[in-house]
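Subject: design request, 347 residues
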């Protein structure tokens, strides 16, 4: 299968620049996984497609305000640091711009001295290993200094940083939001539970590799980035109980999906697990856990549209995307949602 097979034409004006209010007022394209049949709804209607005994699996990772701007101590030059991966203590792997100003041993100052850093090393791909210094909590200082690392296709400034967080986020560590969850309000989740839908959490810290384009023609030759995940015992028990009782396991987002399928592949079943995953899901993949998927609309030729095509069928998904463009749905991180599942019409 070729990467170009997953291309679709998207007018730039359909790329959502700001989130809608309230969160659950976004549109939702509903697809039957088996037939490809489509319905046009709004996200607040999601309860009509969730049944008593189903479970929703949400990624509770919280986005770091990971973009910070420093001044080079000796020249006063401005350099942008983007936190990519926590190594240990206050040592991080970062993406720096311009990188040529961040040589090993150089020092930078942030926020009039609130925080400083020293470049300790350079990785093979040019990222900088940086050692930060500050008084008190690193994360509290980062919250004062940092900006949300919005995707490169969003050009509007975000007025409220919490709008790039899910309402259930709690585990700091992501460089990008698990955006399918942005549509949920606390009230909507409460109504789902009142209907008998169980809620479970996993943690997968989203890396910037999620925006990295596929640069090879042959899909199977692409190398996925690695991300850290945790599936707790409580969630494993919930999933196994749901499946035993005939309920559906519905993943909120591709990150939750990748976590569940990674554990099933690694462990041979669903049980408590923690580690790193570079699982690459594309058409031909055999799903072992998922019955339903809530997701946003993804970039052309991206690994995420490949994952969705693996779950719902290539022809079904590409037809759905063409329809979404024709109907002027909003695309990408702050855009509209899809709900994909089998048996979704069983009322």
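Subject: RE: design request

Done. Sequence follows.
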């Amino acid at each position: 299968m070729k990467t170009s097979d997953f291309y679709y034409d998207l007018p730039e004006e359909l790329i959502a620049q700001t989130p809608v209010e309230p969160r659950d007022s976004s549109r939702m394209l509903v697809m039957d996984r088996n037939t490809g049949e489509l319905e046009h709804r709004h996200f607040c209607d999601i309860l009509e497609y969730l049944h008593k005994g189903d479970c929703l699996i949400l990624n509770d990772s919280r986005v770091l305000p990971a973009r910070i701007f420093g001044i080079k101590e000796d020249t006063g030059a401005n350099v942008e640091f983007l936190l990519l991966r926590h190594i240990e203590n206050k040592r991080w792997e970062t993406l720096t711009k311009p990188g040529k100003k961040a040589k090993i041993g150089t020092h930078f100052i942030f926020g009039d001295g609130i925080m400083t850093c020293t470049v300790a090393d350079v990785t093979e791909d040019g990222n900088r290993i940086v050692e930060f210094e500050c008084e008190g909590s690193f994360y509290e200082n980062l919250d004062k200094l940092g900006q949300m690392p919005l995707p490169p296709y969003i050009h509007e400034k975000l007025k409220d940083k919490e709008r790039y967080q899910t309402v259930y986020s709690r585990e700091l560590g992501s460089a990008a939001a698990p955006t399918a969850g942005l549509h949920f309000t606390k009230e909507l989740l409460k109504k789902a539970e009142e209907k008998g839908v169980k809620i479970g959490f996993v943690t997968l810290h989203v890396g910037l590799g999620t925006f990295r384009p596929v640069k090879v023609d042959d899909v199977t030759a692409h190398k996925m980035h690695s991300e850290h995940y945790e599936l707790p015992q409580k969630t494993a028990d919930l999933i196994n109980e749901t499946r035993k009782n005939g309920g559906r396991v519905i993943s909120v987002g591709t990150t939750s999906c990748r976590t569940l399928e990674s554990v099933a592949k690694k462990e041979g079943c669903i049980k408590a697990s923690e580690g790193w995953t570079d699982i690459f899901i594309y058409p031909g993949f055999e799903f072992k856990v998922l019955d339903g998927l809530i997701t946003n609309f993804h970039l052309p030729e991206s690994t995420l549209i490949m994952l969705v095509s693996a779950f719902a069928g290539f022809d079904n998904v590409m037809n759905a995307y063409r329809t979404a463009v024709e109907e002027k749905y909003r695309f990408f991180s702050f855009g509209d949602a899809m709900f994909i599942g089998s048996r979704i019409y069983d009322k």
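The helical segments are 138-145, 186-194, 233-244, 254-267, 303-312, 314-326.
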